[in-house]
Amino acid sequence: MTIYYIMLFVMTLIASFASFFLKKSTGGITVLLIIRNKYFYFGGFLYVIGALINIWLLKKMPYSVVVPMGGICYIWIMIIAGIFLKEKIGIGKIMGVLLIVSGVICVIV
What are 78-83's contacts with CB under 8 Å, separation 24+? Predict the structure, then answer.
């Protein structure tokens, strides 16, 4: 069962980086420029990989565990935004992430 939790953790990380690369692809002014951006395809590829892992996990684990634990993505996204996008991480965001962590812990216990 531990491997499933590790894969869930990996899946949320992949999905979070997928969003990051799709955000990076939006530098173009038009849709055509976005579609030509390499980050658009890399982000899409990561989304597909994350979705496939998610489907596999849904087969192996309870739905009531897999879906709520997807909230871990919010933690990764905040870390990615702070490190790579230089976004400010204030106390409100930190408190929100702590609430998410406590919710995830409640789901898996």
Answer: 80/16, 80/17, 80/20
pTM of the full structure: 0.87
Phi, psi of 85 (to 5 degrees): -105, 0
Q: Select from 61, 64, 65, 71 the least CA-distant residue to 102.
A: 71
Burial class (CB in 10 A: 0-12, 13-18, 19+), 1: exposed
50-68 per-position pLDDT tens digit: 999 999 999 999 998 999 8
Better-scored residue on pLDDT, 20 or 34 = 20
Q: How far apart are CA 77 and CA 38, in angstroms?
A: 20
